[in-house]
Amino acid sequence: MSETKKVIPNLPIAEWFELERNMEIVARMSTEPVRAILTRNIQQEKESL
Fold this sequence. Notes:
Elements (H helix, E strand, L loop, with lengths): L1 H6 L5 H17 L2 H17 L1
């Protein structure tokens, strides 16, 4: 948490909550299918190198 505060200093509390809620939504959205697609894209990039 201290790491994040270094990156984003002086952020109002309301924005922190907003940020956390957005992260939660993103985390909920990145279910298995999304992860599988991302993983496959990464694999393809590695193979093309």
